[in-house]
């Protein structure tokens, strides 16, 4: 895992936030070993072929796990974003809320269901489905 992500996780305010971030990083790295991971827009993000797939961030409400193409996963546990993109997310306030089987299922779907965010600027905001 990228050392910047480890530093991000250690910099969280509470023990619960650090535990959530550590658990998410571990499961994402385990399920996406081929993915590049780095801090992108100040948050940990994993990429497949330069396309952002999954990441997490600190919000006032908790730690948000976001899948860039998650609105296409057809999963009740993920809430679609409010904009024109295909993102969906879930917010955790305690590590016990993380359902590992669900997160693994979402990560598996993130490999097969992707929208082309890498080229969205080149396409002037138009998203194209990759897989």
Outline the structure in words.
The protein contains 3 helices and 6 strands; from the N terminus they run ααββββββα. A 6-stranded antiparallel beta sheet has the order 1-2-3-4-6-5, covered by helices on one side. The protein has helices at residues 3-10, 15-31, 100-112, and strands spanning 36-40, 43-48, 51-59, 62-67, 79-80, 88-92. It has one domain: Aspartate Aminotransferase, domain 1. Helix 1 (3-10) runs antiparallel to helix 2. The mean pLDDT is 94. It is α+β, with helices and mostly antiparallel strands.
Helix content: 25-40%
| Shape-level CATH architecture | Alpha-Beta Complex
Structural class category? alpha+beta
The string of secondary-structure elements, in order, is HHEEEEEEH
Overall radius of gyration? 14 Å
Q: Output the CATH topology.
A: Aspartate Aminotransferase, domain 1
Amino- and carboxy-terminal Cα gap:
26 Å
Q: What's the structural domain tally?
A: 1
Low-confidence blocks of residues:
none
> Helix count, per DSSP?
3
Largest sheet: 6 strands, antiparallel
Task: For the largest sheet, list the strands in their spatial order.
Answer: 1-2-3-4-6-5
| Text of the CATH class | Alpha Beta
Based on CA inertia axes, which overall geometry fits?
globular
**Total strand segments:** 6
Mean pLDDT: 94
Percent of residues in beta strands:
25-35%
Itemize the secondary structure elements and their pairings:
Blueprint: H1 3-10, H2 15-31, E1 36-40, E2 43-48, E3 51-59, E4 62-67, E5 79-80, E6 88-92, H3 100-112
Antiparallel strand pairs: 1-2, 2-3, 3-4, 4-6, 5-6
